[in-house]
Amino acid sequence: MAKTAFVDFKAVKAAITMEQVLEHYGILDKFKRGTDSLNGPCPIHKGSNPTQFRVSISKNIWNCFSECKHGGNVLDFIEKMENVSIHAAALKAIEWFNLNPAEMAADRGETGEAEEATPAPKPTPKSATRTTTTAPAEKNVPNAPLKFRLDKLEREHPYLTQERGLSLETIVDFGIGFCSKGMMAGHIAIPIHNAKGEVMAYAGRFPGEPPEATPKYKLPPGFRKSQELFNIDRAIKEPDDKPLLIVEGFFDCMKIHQHGYRKVVALMGSTMSAVQEELIRQHTKHDSHIIVMLDENEAGIIGREDIACRLSKFCFVRVHQFPRPDMEPEHLSDDELADIVDGIA
Ligand SMILES: [Zn+2]
């Protein structure tokens, strides 16, 4: 529990900008941009004077010269806006901006990727059901499809072909590749589609072990991965009588796909949000089978129990347990995977 409660405020503050936070609240366009400042009405006391609230971009701090007579950093701002503790503000920031507390927490030395795309601290069974209700303001606001595509991605990057063992066919199929320009520069860009096949965002995976304080995954600010299921667009085209495999990570999903099993989606974390549950429900018949195959670690074990419990209300669910700790779906061989999915039919 102590681990769960640990939040590195400094790392959270460093990871987000005031600009991103204003954008998150949908009020960035109310602010005028100076050389190093954003000026606008104070969103905290809801003032109207367009110069009363000022953000220093370089210092990443804000000040209200009017009613609040107060200023502070990004977390102070979220604290005031949400009327919560600084700890709760940090947890909100982690969730909104898909920050990775496992990466930021200094007390963790795990090398596995179980938490790589997990937005919130490891859930306990209690908090797993609570996470979906922590941010009521934005939880039902859908992501909007992207209006651009990243091109000139380097497909045959050694991180993909050698380290992750992906074939060129899989790489092209998923549209991933190393990006050298723009927001995802220096990362493997991974497009995330909605059920209609529209690109909703690119996730950026650092190719290899990132330096300290750099998260393995980068997601666009404001994008809510809890509203999407990676590969859902293709999984739903597969026959009804095939079981749907639910895994945690992008690479688990791509690897399983590469083995020829295409009815697979990734939660992009070890928990299932209410929106993800609804997505699965929409595309599942009452006699459908689902296999929940998360990583064999603490987060995965907690996550799969909660997921199985929730999904079993409307279809048949089987939880796959690996024989050894820290095993992940990504590392299954063709034969092992075939045994798992054939066992169901
Ligand atoms: Zn104010």
Distance between the termini: 40 Å
Q: Helix and strand string, N-terminal first?
A: HHHEEEEEHHHHHHHEEEEHEHEHEHEH
Instruction: Tell me the strand percentage band.
Output: 15-25%
CATH names the topology of the largest domain as: Dna Topoisomerase Vi A Subunit, Chain: A, domain 2
The proportion of residues forming helix, as a percent range, comes to 25-40%
How does the major sheet shape up? 5 strands, antiparallel
Number of strands: 13
CATH class of the largest domain: Alpha Beta
Give the helix tally: 15
**What is the approximate shape?**
elongated
CATH architecture of the largest domain: 3-Layer(aba) Sandwich
Strand order of the largest sheet: 1-2-3-4-5
Structural class: alpha+beta
- Uncertain runs with pLDDT below 50, 5 residues or more? 105-139
The Rg value, from CA coordinates, equals: 21 Å
